[in-house]
Amino acid sequence: MRLAPLAAVLALLPLAAPAQETPSPSSLSRVLSVTGEGHATAKPDLARISLGVSHQAGTAAEAMAMMAEGMQAVLARLTQEGIASSDIRTGQLMLEPAWNYNTPDGNPVMTGFVATQLVDVTVRDLDRVGAVLDAVVQDGANRVNGVTFDLAEPRGALDEARRQAVADARARAELYAEAAGVTLGELISIAESGGFAPLPMYDARGMAAGAEAVPVAPGQMTLTASVAMTWALAD
Q: pTM score, two decimals?
């Protein structure tokens, strides 16, 4: 009595799918992937200075007070030199124990504390970089870690580097395709794989207070773009 419904159910089940064949190499996607690089040069129009004040004292409170007094003088001088408050950014603030390692038994002895505060300063008039450095050193900045140069608007130079990167990738792809005896098809993907700008740097840590205005040469910046591109190969 129950065989008929069971047969009906079995009749509704899909037939078993035939075993899939392993695709032949000729049916697989054929692509060519390359990476291109482009470069553009530009003259920097601003400088970034990392500077600060560091003082050592017997107690942490004394060290912090001396550092704070020196930093207030430096910030006031930066304002006098025409640096906008928006171009001054507080960097690191450190309080560390000071040690004397030159002891008879060779065991270090704690002698006090060192308080340090650093600020990052943007100078938008490159002709004034040396004068600003000289001024802040005379007013108490005893940590000048260096100067880097940058562009206020790097987009134009970066875009030129990107165009060159794409042209370089296409030229490489055409060369490889010709050498391999194949033909490029449509462009499948394009992705920027990073860009960077090597910055000229001046290390000013050895600068002495009262020295002449520091000579600074910004030179030229090189901005680099890299792009990864993939083409299908035509049949």
A: 0.68
